Amino acid sequence: MTVPPATGRRERKKAATRQKIADTALRLFLERGYDAVGIREVAAEADVAVTTLFSHFASKEALVFEQDEDFEQRLTQAVTGRAPHAPLIPALRHEIEALVRHCTAAGAAPIWRMIDESPALRKYDESMRLRHAETLAAAIAADPELSLSLSPTASRTIARFVIDAYSLAREEADPEAALDEIFRMIEAAWDAAGPAPRASGTSGR
Q1: Cα 43–47–51 angle (5° rounding)?
Q2: HTH tetR-type domain spans which residues (predicted)?
Q3: Which is nearest to 42 in space by CA: 68, 66, 63, 73?
Q4: pLDDT tens figures, 185-203
Q5: CA–CA separation, 51 vs 56, rounded Å?
Q6: Of the candidates 95, 97, 66, 69, the residue with the CA atom closest to the CA atom of residue 81
Q7: For every residue of 59-99, which 3-state class applies, written as one string?
Q8: Do 30 and 37 meet the contact criterion of CB atoms below 8 Å apart?
Q9: Which of 70, 103, 122, 136 has the smallest number of CB atoms closer than 10 Å to its CB?
Q10: Is 34 exposed, middle or buried, given 0-12, 13-18 or 19+ CB atoms closer than 10 A?
Q11: What is the spatial distance between Cα 115 and Cα 113, in angstroms, rounded to a whole number?
């Protein structure tokens, strides 16, 4: 269905406002320290009302993880948007690699130092990863093809492994090599969780 032009403009304006708020918050946090900056200061600096800020971000912590929802949606899309019988794990690895590249790009180190030094941000990061794992597990369990071969426990286990791959790899000196090692183990767990391969030599997963 074609989106009406007016709707497109509204969505672009909302996205621009959201990005402006997030960029402003991150700049202030890095300049003055996360705990030293309040929500009202962020809103004033971004030239928006506090209510507008909260319409885009549910909490102060969420301002630091502004791509949270986008990443969660991309993980779900990696499951639901696959071609029929396309393997799942490579599709998930593609999204994890993209996130790791984002989190290890130039300029990311000060942000992670800030997160590591803040108990509130560390707690939010942990809860966010748990939520991503549950969302991913639900998408796997809801897939008609995958649900035939995986138990709910297996779906949750694989999802946790995939999400943990991101946090482990981003801390390594060579994230790509770390992902190679981690995903070999995930593939082995994936193979062990499903039924025996079909006679054609493929599992159809």
Answers
A1: 45
A2: 15-75
A3: 63
A4: 999 999 888 644 433 344 4
A5: 9
A6: 95
A7: CCHHHCCCCHHHHHHHHHHHHHCCCCCCCHHHHHHHHHHHH
A8: no
A9: 70
A10: buried
A11: 5
CATH of 5-58, one of 1.25.40.10, 3.30.70.260, 1.10.1760.20, 1.10.10.60: 1.10.10.60
Name every residue whose Cβ is closer than 8 Å to that of residue 144 and which is 6 or more positions away in sequence.
none
Query: The domain 68-193: what is its CATH number?
Result: 1.10.357
- The domains of the chain are located at 5-58, 68-193
What is the C-alpha separation between 155 and 134, in angstroms, rounded? 9
CA dihedral 91→63→102→110, nearest 10 degrees, is -150
Structure tokens that stand for 77 in this block: 């899309």
DSSP E strands in 7-155: the ranges are none
User: pLDDT of 51-108, one tens digit each?
Assistant: 999 999 999 999 999 888 899 999 999 999 988 888 999 999 999 999 999 888 888 9
Cα separation of 178 and 189, whole Å?
A: 17
Query: Which residue type is seen at 193?
Result: A
AA letter at 130: L
- The span from the CA of 139 to the CA of 75, in Å, is 9
